[in-house]
Design goal:
This protein is α/β, with parallel strands linked by helices and 447 residues long. The chain has three domains: 116 residues, Probable tRNA modification gtpase trme, domain 1 (Gyrase A, domain 2, 2-Layer Sandwich), CATH 3.30.1360; 129 residues, Four Helix Bundle (Hemerythrin (Met), subunit A) (Up-down Bundle), CATH 1.20.120.430; 163 residues, Rossmann fold (3-Layer(aba) Sandwich). Helices cover 45% and strands 16% of the residues. The chain is built from 15 helices and twelve strands. The strands form two sheets. The chain has a six-stranded mixed beta sheet with strand order 3-4-5-2-1-6, with helices on one face. Strands 8-9-7-10-11-12 form a six-stranded mixed beta sheet, sandwiched between helices. The radius of gyration is 29 Å and the shape is flat. The two termini are 16 Å apart. The mean pLDDT is 89. Bound molecules: guanosine-5'-triphosphate (GTP) and magnesium ion. Guanosine-5'-triphosphate (GTP) binds next to helix 9.
Length: 447
Amino acid sequence: MNDTIAAIATASGVASIAIVRISGPDAYEIARRMSAPKELDAREARLSTIYDMEGEIIDRGILIYFPSPRSFTGEDIVEFQVHGGMVVAQRVLESAIHFGARHARPGEFSKRAYLNGKIDLSEAEAIASLIEARSLDAARILLRQMRGELGRFVERVREGILTVRAYSEVSIDYAEEDIPPDILEAIEAGLQRLSCDMQRVLDSSERRRGLIEGFRIAIVGRPNVGKSSLLNALLDYERAIVSDIAGTTRDTIEEQIRVGTHIVRIVDTAGIRDARDEIERRGVNRSLESIEEADIVIALFDSSREYDEDEDGRILRLIEGFEKERLIVALNKSDLPGRFDTEILAPFPYIEISAKREFTRLMSELEKRLDGFSSSDELMLVNERQMDAVRRCAKQIEEAREPLRRGELEIFSYHLAEAASAIGEISRPYESEEILDRMFSEFCLGK
Ligand SMILES: Nc1nc2c(ncn2[C@@H]2O[C@H](COP(=O)(O)OP(=O)(O)OP(=O)(O)O)[C@@H](O)[C@H]2O)c(=O)[nH]1
Ligand SMILES: [Mg+2]
């Protein structure tokens, strides 16, 4: 970590400002050679002419110097705020490289922050996820995590485990199978509490996964009910082919839309029926998979046609038993005379819409569901690595119970030690450089 790294921290493309960041022991010296002021004051924005390695003026921009250790990475950092578009920023970066910095690898700034003890791993991951978050609620959750909420959860669980272990240490002095019942009870209760806490966090993280990845919404129904028309209406342009020929859509079509404060993926599917040929059969299989993968399913029926036991019935059977937060039943084509026997839909609350005219009810239903997913204030695990650590911890705790009952306290204690180390991995895990590198390389460049 003795070298100095540099990267453009802003996205490429046309924008008014671009930021180049330099971090490491030579950051200050490099910045001074590229700018006019004799010295830079700590954490003060300084307007300056900026020069390239040949002494040519590149731009006039702002420099900010963050001396170590009070910076994001804990090292000396200088930030250049220059005019946007990539040409100027690129030249600033090249000049910094010329004067002794090297190109930062993706996530390398965050990795340095971690290695210098400025952030723990869960905070670093929260930052990486925040950049990709698909909803305002996710941003809020991640902000709390960046401020150490998950790290504190880890500490609480670890302390809980250690307390239970301490109880058992006391009992090791007793003869085997002779642990006083009140101590045994206290240990059991402690384990139970820990298991519940972890299960709750796992469940609610699973449910709210889409906050970060973007929730997925599938529109399903028999052919011709207006699924593609609805997709087009939601997107406000003719994305999918619409026709009155049943079986028009052969493959799933996925697009992004904004619903309230969420950016979600919406999937139009092939109409589900007994397929007429091989390609349609594959399309229908994809539709069925979409139902499995969706966070919310919009089951669409056609009010202008009579209920069809085979085809509409099949949709009803597919959505039977769905959790109600995951399902919206809609009767489409409300602008046409109604022929559909609405009694059939009685078990579901359904809404009437017209993909051609009026579907605001659908939008507000969707928004309500999406908000429902995020309303929980529960702590959230934001990636597979964190989920895996909690699952392994929970498993060790589960496995500790049997030896406890048998009075095998050493084995019991071993499982608890494993549990504590599993959960600890969330915030300060591996000594292995390789694993750390792999993890941070998934971050954005310049982060
Ligand atoms: N009057 C009226 N017609 C509609 C409405 N929605 C769709 N349609 C018509 O219904 C027919 C079928 O629409 P599509 O959107 O292609 O239906 P689909 O469900 O995607 O059909 P497949 O792709 O074959 O599964 C088209 O002629 C649409 O114009 C509506 O709200 N009102
Ligand atoms: Mg279609």
